[in-house]
Write a structure and sequence with these properties.
Layout lengths: L1 E5 L3 H12 L5 E6 L2 H11 L3 E5 L1 E2 L2 E2 H8 L6 E6 L3 H4 L8 E4 L4 H16 L3 H16 L16 E6 L2 E6 L3 E7 L2 E6 L2 E6 L2 H8 L9 E5 L2 E4 L3 E8 L2 E6 L4 E3 L5 H9 L1
Parallel strand pairs: 1-2, 1-3, 3-6, 6-7
Antiparallel strand pairs: 4-5, 8-9, 10-11, 10-14, 11-12, 13-14, 15-16, 16-17
Length: 265
């Protein structure tokens, strides 16, 4: 995936470049310090993704999007010093956003999400979201009502050989971390997804006031609550968790609060 960095701070550009150079499958095609440079580089180098700072000296990242046009704009991940509250109004329009100072793991999650969207060829829907963002700003607002996250997905897209397939979230029994990938156990089959377990847990989370559908039992395991059949005390705050597919997982005592909350429900 070809990535272009757009940020008016040299130190920020160097940090982002360093992180990108360390990731497999990522090629940094350039760095831009201004809106004019960004527009020229996007048109000439045609990146797949732009890491776009919101404030670029006297101009903004939004003006870059307007000049390129939403239909022609590559995928966008905002990189910004804005706080979370200020981002609520427009974050749903981009692929993702990363707050400064940039956390390497958070950046990797954003890049993974961009790669997934690119593979699904969802450019049209992303263009619509960018158009909505620009229209809202032109009308004097910063976007729609402040909703942080859309609803949790009902299905996940997985790769099976050269094909893409859908896995119903309700059919998932548990998910395990495996480096930069996750292994999704569903209905007796195992599917591999690129991305971190933290990122997938965030995607699967429902509205903030709803009971979680998935619970973290240990650092490397996320379990579908509906798939849990029995819990057996294992000592020192740990449990053996028996799932409907026959799996037996041992929870970590460092995540015993999650198990207690589950028992309380």
């Amino acid at each position: 995936m070809k990535v272009l960095i757009v940020d008016d701070e040299p130190l920020a550009r160097r940090g982002l470049r360093r992180e990108l150079d360390a990731l497999p499958g990522i090629t940094c095609v350039g760095e831009c310090a201004s809106g004019d440079e960004a527009v020229a580089a996007i048109q000439k180098r045609q990146p797949d993704l732009v890491l776009l700072d919101i404030q670029l000296g006297r101009t903004t990242g939004f003006e870059v999007i307007e000049r390129i046009g939403a239909e022609a704009m590559p995928l966008v991940v905002f990189v910004t010093a804005y706080d979370r509250h200020a981002l609520r109004a427009f974050e749903v329009h981009a692929v993702d956003y990363v707050l400064k100072p940039v956390d390497p793991e958070r950046l990797r999650e954003a890049l993974d999400r961009a790669a997934r969207l690119r593979s699904l060829e969802q450019g049209a829907s992303l263009a619509e979201r960018l158009e909505s963002l620009l229209a809202a700003r032109r009308n004097g607002g910063e976007g729609p009502s402040p909703v942080l996250q859309p609803g949790a997905p009902d299905r996940l897209v997985v790769t099976e050989g050269e094909k893409k397939a859908f896995v119903e979230v309700a059919s998932i029994d548990w998910i395990e971390a495996q480096g930069n990938y996750t292994r999704v156990h569903a209905g007796g089959r195992v599917h591999q997804l690129r991305g971190t377990l933290n990122g997938l847990e965030e995607r699967l989370a429902g509205p903030g006031d709803a009971p979680p559908r998935f619970v973290r039992l240990r650092r490397s395991a996320l379990v579908n609550v509906a798939a849990i059949r029995t819990l057996e005390p294992y000592g020192r705050g740990m449990y053996v968790v028996n799932l409907r597919d026959g799996s037996r997982l041992v929870s970590s005592r460092y995540h015993q609060r999650n198990v207690k909350a589950l028992l309380g429900r």
